[in-house]
Write a structure and sequence with these properties.
The chain is of the alpha/beta class and about 400 residues long. It has two domains: about 240 residues, Metallo-beta-lactamase, Chain A; about 140 residues, Rossmann fold. It contains twelve helices and 22 strands. A seven-stranded mixed sheet has the order 1-2-7-8-9-10-11. Strands 17, 18, 19, 20, 21 and 22 form a six-stranded parallel sheet that branches. A five-stranded mixed sheet has the order 12-13-14-15-16, with no helix packed on it. α5 crosses α9 and α9 crosses α10. It starts with a strand and ends with a helix. The relative contact order is 0.10.
Length: about 400
């Protein structure tokens, strides 16, 4: 159902209550999401983005209930990823072929590469404008936030920033605005979204945000492509992004591990006990990478000032869930975080050294060579592990 935002802007997107996985199986979206599309009606009419491919017909049919498609003068594609552009083929099938689609040069490559259609693309770059009558759209390229083709659009007069994948979260709601939902849940989802999708591009995020701030644009509302619209104090999410992009950490140590016969788990628990003995204030999270959701694991890693990574040695290496999460952590390009490895073994015991080298290559400050335990930890081992945790603090 379409929802009016201002006299000129109407939300015409899709709320996806059932979405539980995103980016294939990489991102868990237990709170669902939305694919936000915005219809701007001035002397000219512009449609900003569409919806994910499975909802293409539903999207177009609902849009036709709101407006005669022939009255849409421009389509704005802020980002070519299929969750934003998926309904384009169905939409353009019912619109004049001459209808211009405004996007970046990389946006043309992305959309053509996915849909193999040669539509009337109009390439724009930062500072280009499109007059709609009383209002004007100004385009702002935002490469790698989070694809090379991404751009934002600012609507003068209404003072609205359409921010594509910036400033959003995967959160389905019966409400439209961020101030209408429970704030802890909202910010947990926003932080999870940033950590898992935008963290690798933090330097670019900081640069782009400062560039927009330097433009001195009055912003009364931020309309992202997923989740809730920021209408009350919209700069609050901008300030959070600058904080998260600034080598973010909380007073937290996260211990991630996998285990075959619970020996490495016992090591993790003993180390955690040592940490707690020395520092009652620090938050300690223990997460089994074979059982805990990887989206949550990465979020806790993002929040931490130190991580511990543990695995038994198996076939001269470490367990596959640790290998997978380490690869994902490396891709986050985190800075200003410490790390250490640990693990049990029965024969060769290479895993701790291998994990240590991987952590170094991923940009962590590895504080020592880690700790190993042969077979099941006994009382003497446990005391050594507790002391190891105390010394880490």
């Amino acid at each position: 159902m379409a929802k009016k935002i201002t006299n000129k802007i109407t939300w015409v997107g899709k709320t996806d209550w059932e979405l539980k996985k995103f980016h294939g199986d990489e991102f868990t979206t237990i709170s669902g999401s939305s694919y936000n599309s915005y219809l701007i009606r001035d002397e000219k009419v512009a449609l900003i983005d569409t919806a994910w491919l499975p909802y293409d017909k539903e999207f177009v049919n609902k849009l036709k209930e709101e407006i005669d498609l022939n009255k849409i003068d421009y389509v704005i594609a802020l980002h070519g990823e299929v969750d934003h552009s998926g309904a384009l083929v169905e939409l353009m099938r019912e619109m004049p072929e001459s209808t211009p689609i405004y996007c970046t040069a990389n946006g043309v490559k992305s959309i053509k590469g996915q849909y193999h259609k040669d539509w009337n693309f109009q390439v724009v770059k930062t500072g280009d404008t499109l007059s709609l009558g009383e209002t004007t759209l100004t385009f702002i390229e935002a490469p790698m936030l989070h694809w090379p083709d991404t751009m934002f659009a600012y609507l003068s007069g209404e003072e609205v920033l359409f921010s594509s994948d910036g400033f959003g979260e995967h959160l389905a709601s019966e409400h439209l605005y961020a101030d209408q939902v429970e704030q802890d849940r909202l910010y947990n989802e926003a932080l999870k979204y940033y950590a898992n999708i935008l963290a690798p591009f933090s330097m670019m995020a900081t640069k782009k945000i400062n560039e927009i701030l330097a433009m001195n644009l009055p912003i009364s509302m931020i309309c992202p492509s997923h989740g809730l619209i920021w209408r009350k104090n919209p700069e609050q999410i901008v300030e959070k992004y600058l904080e998260w992009a600034g080598n973010y950490q909380e007073n937290q140590i996260t211990i991630i591990y996998d285990t075959m016969w619970n020996d490495t788990r016992k090591m993790a628990e003993a180390i955690a006990k040592g940490i707690q003995n020395k520092d009652k204030e620090v938050t300690i999270k223990l997460m089994n990478t074979a059982k805990d959701d990887k989206t949550d694991v990465l979020t806790e890693v993002f929040k931490s000032k130190m991580i511990l990574v543990g695995s038994p040695t198996v076939n001269n290496g470490y367990l596959h869930s640790i290998a997978g999460i380490l690869e994902m952590i490396k891709g986050m390009k985190l800075k200003n975080k410490k790390a250490v490895a640990f693990g049990s073994f029965g024969w060769s015991g290479e895993a701790v050294k291998q994990i240590t080298e991987y952590l170094k290559a991923s940009g962590f400050e590895v504080v020592n060579d880690g700790i190993r335990c042969m077979w099941t930890p006994d009382e003497e081992n446990e005391q050594a592990l507790i002391k190891f945790g105390e010394e880490l603090v």
